[in-house]
């Protein structure tokens, strides 16, 4: 029997996400923007709720191409708020549009969103060694620094807990528990 992190349960969508995506170092600008946006959409909800809506998010938010999202106008936002395939929260939808504009500014300034975000972990994956979920903190000094910097630039729904969840998902930290079969695989991927 394969041992996984306890949080993923048995839902096939969640198991697939855990086994193939969560914790894998992500360096693609568009992918990082998508993940940060979806982590923000999760605020107050469970990740499985967002994961079930991810395909629709990709459709209605132009494949998370920030240049296209940055041009969304109020009429487009109103239309999105009627779509049951996404989380219909005005602040979150408007935050995605303003976040796309901020993302473009960051890319222009730093050359890539990847370079900007990974600076908070020194450009490498932090290899934690948790034995159980109870040991994993909800936030860290790195996630607090990321949160502060993103908020100062205008991002919404980027508190320290959301930033830490983002860092876990994007492989900036390896928070697979030691007994999880993905721990060593993700550790190896971080060294490539």
Describe this entry's structure for a reader.
It is a single chain. The chain is an all-alpha fold. It has one domain: Hypothetical protein, domain 2 (Endonuclease III, domain 1). Helix content is 56%, strand content 2%. It has helices at 12-20, 29-42, 47-60, 66-69, 74-80, 90-110, 113-118, 141-153, 160-169, 182-191; strands spanning 126-127, 173-174. Strands 1-2 form a two-stranded parallel sheet. It is globular, with a radius of gyration of 16 Å.
List the helices and strands and how they pair.
Layout: H1 12-20, H2 29-42, H3 47-60, H4 66-69, H5 74-80, H6 90-110, H7 113-118, E1 126-127, H8 141-153, H9 160-169, E2 173-174, H10 182-191
Parallel strand pairs: 1-2
Helix pairs in contact: 2-3, 2-6, 2-9, 8-9
